Amino acid sequence: MGRIIIYDGAEEIGGSKILVETGKDKFLLDFGLNYKRRGLYFEEFLNPRVANGIGDLYYLGLIPPIKGLYRKDLTKKLCQNGNEELGKGDEPSPVDCIFVSHAHFDHSAYISMVREDIPIFASSTTIALLKAMEESGATNFETSMFKFIKRDTTSSKNEEKYGTHDIRSIDSSVHLTESVVSPFSVDHSVPGAVGFVIQSPQATIVYSGDLRLHGKRRKDTEKFVHSAKESKPDFFLVEGTNLGEKESGEFWTEQRVYEEANEVFKKSEGLIIVNFSIRDVDRFLTFYELAKAYGRKFVLTLRDAYLLKAMREIGLGVPGLDDPSIYFYLEKRRSGTYCDEDYREAWFKNIFTVIDSGKLLKASDIKKNEKEFLIILRFFDLQELVDIQPRPGSVYIHSSSEAHTEEQTIDETRLDNWLKAFGLPPKVHIHASGHAKREDIFGIIQEINAKVVLPIHTEHSEEIKKQFPDRVRIVKNFDIVNI
According to a count of CB atoms within 10 Å of the terminal CB, is the N or C end of the chain lower? Predict the structure, then answer.
């Protein structure tokens, strides 16, 4: 007898944490951050206390109570307060390993908190992206995997102060004691995404991760669906992010994004500002090609340049940092004088050694002739508008998903306020989803033809139930499905 336990992500979008137990194997599928539930308690200036280990997250139900799963330095504070429900960190590991479907934090971030001796499997592309993001971002208690600070040591020795996780590439099948976990590339809004086919003596289980059929790598998803069908699965854990979207006869593709953005480019007489994730290769190439077509310099922040370098190194088909169309924005930091000491972090020094200093642009350089530039600025870069001072005729293209939570709605209101402050028109929303549309989800389920369908990563499981009433089991967080 085996079982599947849905610890998180059953009734909401993101935060996926799924435990699979076969006769002799136990492993997790994803271990992500649940943004929606975290937002009920925390925000920018109210965060979990690092000094309390994982105590704040545990008491608020943001991590599952799996004894022995978490780092010893993070459970220590709980034990000191008399609570040993999560263990002391020296128990036998409750899982053999963790399989990560892709690099989005709602599927991967809370790996940072698990024990260092638990192997973590992800595609080589996912590993490279997560590593570059960590190196170029602020040290974060909730997302650091490759170099985390041990919270129970006072040692000044680096080898004792820091730890890292056992992260391994899964570009082929992993053979456990009696189960075989096979990854298959799928199309999503971040490269390196995979779905899994799990074969064990007890059951064959398919896990979709996040996927779509309307992107440029549609064939990857089709191959996964075919392989999943051939496995004759007993259970299919399928994402349903877009189940709540009403079909209107149209679903935006990347080609549609290009066409709509092209119309904006035609009319723009000033600076073009775009907000999208640099990890979305398709979206990057869309705006890169448009910038070249209109003779605009494509300006990246240094953090985005660092990620682009990592993406180029793993062969993702993006231009190199020496591309003549690509320039770099030098943000004002610390002293505000652009002195070398303001950029002392290792990743800054790294990126400065591989870019042409003549292509480093300050805000004053962009102000001189805004028509020459397209610049990527996201929500947390909006302060740069104060220095750039975009003129009338400039435009802000929001090429990310619409707000799904109250906190995201508040952020969009703030964005609107920033644009109004500089006399800019309302943002132009141009976006194609990273998730399959309703009818494609139904088609994938029909094609794979699993005996039991378990909808996850959705707020609308009932939509699948209506389509497949005899096969769908609606699950909630902490539900146990016997296999």
Answer: N
